[in-house]
Write a structure and sequence with these properties.
Blueprint (H helix, E strand, L loop, with lengths): L2 E12 L4 E2 L2 E2 L3 E11 L4 E7 L2 H14 L7 H12 L16 H24 L3 H4 L7 E3 L2 E4 L19 H15 L4 E4 L5 H14 L5 E4 L6 H10 L6 E3 L4 H11 L4 E3 L9 H7 L4 E4 L7 H13 L3 E4 L6 H12 L32 E3 L12 H14 L6 H6 L13
Parallel strand pairs: 7-8, 8-9, 9-10, 10-11, 11-12, 12-13
Antiparallel strand pairs: 1-4, 2-3, 4-5, 6-14
The structure holds D-glucarate (GKR) and magnesium ion.
Protein name: glucarate dehydratase
InterPro entries: DgoD-like, Enolase-like_C_sf, Enolase-like_N, Enolase_C-like, GlucD-like, Mandelate_racemase_C, Mandelate_racemase_N_dom
Cofactor: Mg(2+)
């Protein structure tokens, strides 16, 4: 079955002022929607980042893929690799680790691979989970992903989530998410306040939610010493500590002293990082993310490899829409090694989506694998058009949390380590 046509559509949707080590989320988040159409008239969907440098690579790769067979995964990957050439696409926010050429190819390939799996599922009349090994769970547990945040974007009214700048605010935010979605695990995005203040926030969450596993992720802005100190202070409280410090070497030094496992979506972000991380025992948990690990099949292979070496799996997330949530859910449903609740930013999108309502929902903190063939989601073309118009008008062409933050706090620094 040959690819007849590919449409690449950038979109923008409202995003609240979520704080992190890189600064603060801009009022609009960007994504790119990929539609692959075959000579038999089947359509598959993929979703990826919206930053312009990446979008340019995705557009170029789309042209290179026309005429190829959706079943020839290796040929498709080789065509994307040729199209990318020596390009290395870097993020400005720096929250998913360093860029490499290999990671660039994997990122560009991912939405096309997901779209081809969607097509293959539709052709076979089976959900994508069945093409990845079959389900080991009917619904995928996700975590409540908490952020320190301002009440609203400066100059705008307070948003529906309100402010969260202290332990009480965090507990209130967690209560909202747990009550509304039923989440049974909680993650706090840290790297915003002095580390011991964030540890106080975790303790408040522990008191308020005694049965919920907790994680803290400061995106590598702590020194090795600070990381060990915070790790010891939170002994027995955290399920895992995510990216406390930068680099495989630093993480290995913390891992040797901290009482809990360390997780990462920053120091192991491409296959080449695995051998040194395993050798140094730098991580206990890998947060897999099909958006930069080369799609669902390659992510599934990485998960198997990790399990072989005793590394547990969870899943990383950036601001995303429903095509990604569907893909993440199929992957996690088919991957026995993903034993920790996955991350998702979905609640922060407050219902904005490019997929038609109904296919994706949270039940007791988990997303049931969508019914129907392929990914099980359909594009809402009106919503896509609206979000594409928002992209054209919003003026943002790359995620840049630091520059946005400096508009309000001119001395804001992204130095690492910061504490
Ligand atoms: O959305 O601000 C954010 C997060 O900080 C995100 O960009 C990170 O990549 O969720 C991510 C993480 O776990 O590091
Ligand atoms: Mg992280």
């Amino acid at each position: 079955m040959l690819i007849r046509e590919i449409t690449v559509t950038p979109v923008a949707f409202r995003d609240p002022p979520l704080l992190n080590a890189a600064g603060v989320h801009q009022p609009w988040a960007l994504r790119t929607v990929v539609e692959v159409v075959t000579d038999e008239g089947l359509t598959g969907l993929g979703e990826t980042y919206g930053d312009l440098d990446h979008l340019d690579e995705v557009r170029r790769a789309a042209t290179a893929l026309v005429g190829l067979d959706v079943y020839r995964h290796n040929d498709l990957y080789a065509a994307v690799a040729r199209s990318v050439g020596d390009a290395v696409v870097t993020d400005r926010h720096g929250l998913i680790g360093a860029a490499t050429r290999e990671k660039t190819v994997d990122r560009v390939f991912s939405p096309f691979e997901v779209a081809c799996l969607d097509i293959k599922g539709k052709a076979a009349g089976r959900p994508v989970v069945d093409l990845l090994g079959g389900r080991v769970r009917d619904a995928v547990p996700y975590s409540a992903y908490l952020f320190y945040k301002w009440a609203g974007h400066p100059g705008e009214a307070e948003d529906a989530f309100g402010a969260a700048l202290d332990p009480e605010g965090l507990v209130e935010q967690a209560r909202l998410f747990v009550d509304r979605y039923g989440f049974r695990s909680i993650k706090l995005k840290g790297g915003v306040l002095p580390p011991m203040e964030e540890a106080d926030g975790i303790r408040a969450l522990r008191d308020a939610f005694p049965g919920h596993p907790l994680r803290l992720d400061p995106n590598a802005v702590w020194s090795v010493e600070t990381s060990i100190e915070v790790g010891r202070a939170l002994d027995g409280v955290l399920e895992y500590l995510e990216d406390p410090t930068e680099g495989i070497d630093g993480m290995a030094r913390v891992a040797a002293e901290a009482p809990m496992p360390l997780a990462t979506n920053m120091c192991v972000v491409t296959p080449g990082h695995l051998a040194p991380a395993i050798e140094r025992r730098a991580i206990g948990v890998l947060l897999i993310d099909h958006h930069y690990w080369g799609g669902l099949l390659r992510s599934s292979h990485i998960a198997t490899l990790c399990a072989t070496f005793g590394i547990e799996l969870s899943m990383h997330s950036n601001s995303h829409l429903g095509i990604s949530l569907a893909a993440m859910t199929h992957l996690a449903a088919a991957t026995p090694a993903i034993t920790h609740a996955c991350d998702t930013h979905t609640p922060w999108q407050a219902g904005q989506d490019v997929v038609a309502p109904g296919a994706l929902r949270f039940v007791d903190g988990a997303v049931p694998v969508p019914d129907g063939p392929g990914l099980g989601v359909e594009l809402d073309r009106d919503a896509l058009a609206v979000m594409n118009e928002q992209y054209e008008k919003c003026g943002i062409r790359a995620r840049d949390d630091a520059t946005y933050m400096r508009a309000f706090e001119p001395s804001f620094s992204t130095r690492r380590p910061r504490w």
